[in-house]
Amino acid sequence: MMDLTGVSKTFPNGTLALENVSTTIARGEFVALLGPSGCGKSTLLRLMAGLEAPSSGTLAWQDGPPRPGEIGFVFQDATLMPWASAAENVFLPLKLRGKSKAETKAEVTAALAQVGLADFAAAKPAALSGGMKMRVSIARALVSQPKLLLMDEPFAALDEFTRHRLQEDLRGLWRRSGKTIVFVTHSIYEAAYLATRILMMSPRPGRIAADITNNVADGPERRSAADYVALVKQITDVLRAVMPA
Amino acid sequence: MSKTLERAAPFLFGIIGLGLWQGAVWGLAVPQYVLPGPVAILRAYAGDYGTLNTALLSTLTVAFTALLVSAALGVLLALAMAASTLLRAAIQPWAVILQVTPVVAIAPLIIIWVNQPFMALVVCATVVAFFPVLSNTAAGLAATPADLLDLFRLNGATRWQTLLLLRLPAALPYFLAGLRISGTLALVGAVVAEFVAGSGGFASGLAYRILEAGYRLEIPRMFAALTLLAFAGVAIYAALGLFSHLMLRRRDS
Questions:
Q1: ipTM, 2 decimals?
Q2: What's this model's pTM, rounded to 2 decimal places?
């Protein structure tokens, strides 16, 4: 899907956020960018989205640069418009491309159903729980059928129970749809549960410290399987080796 | 119980204050031309409510027109300032200068320049009132959530779409807070302008009645006009507060 070659990012204040990042995101992969705060993982995600330009290096799309709506982005906060209903929030990406409400009604309904909120189309964000708001935010990112879904610590602000539910739903959604997802997180367990591939990042300056493949089988035992526990241990060991004391 | 007491507190405080005031005026035999008691003020109002109410209406018309103009002008200037940093740099210092210059000082000029009396009063009141709408709306436009702006960008939104669908709705609570402050300032501006214009002889507002009562030493009538003005200010503030509350509740829930 995308090749990154020698990507570096220096902010105007002189901070070197990313140094010489090279990797390839393959179509259909679920990649976790895992690292502590300040390791540049969010910056890397914003570069992939085209919200920032790299200071040096290149990001090349294998089948041409994305058009508006071909990248779905989910932020750490749900960032819904408080004055618009769930359905209107989900409709937004389509509206911005000049589509009418009538012709996209089915798409919006389907996107809401996909995240289990079919019955809450008319609800305003103030009436929804934190987890439901995040579901609306995910539906909004999915409604334009993006070829790449970028998620920036979307579950970090949710309680553990809601987080588990949403992780399971997201993993199921990825298995059904085969979408390419890049997911930023600072939770080892979340990365090990969700992703097919984990890019460990180390801070100051941000770089890729390890590239780990996840082969744990899907299923109800995924969170307690022996190879899941082994993977968590493997990540933890890498972490100990690469993190500055 | 304590909640009810809290609600009643301003009224109880007022009634006790009025009682003490009336008692002192009676007890110390203060002459009415120095300080009239509440009873004398009420009597003065009852004796002249036709003129006083007409005057109040006249002042409120000026204040309300100035508020509408302020809202439109404040939003337009805030939009201009949000649209370009050059315009922001050009407008901001002049808005501040206009805000800090006492209206009493420029009102005589405005009254000379603007021939039509009603318009002259409205211009004075607008000069006083427009700044809170401008600065609050500008702050609201600048405080649009960055993530939502990114989302609009990713979906290829035009500048116009971003303004209409995101920045203006996001700035609405700020605008309404500014409007509430501007409402009371518009009344202050209208009164000040009437004071300055009053001696010009074309004014019929409450400030003119206060001046007139002062010249004639009709102190109770002066107090009656003052009281009306105070009530009008409180009413404007409360009404705009309610308006803003209802608008935002209707929109966001």
A1: 0.87
A2: 0.83
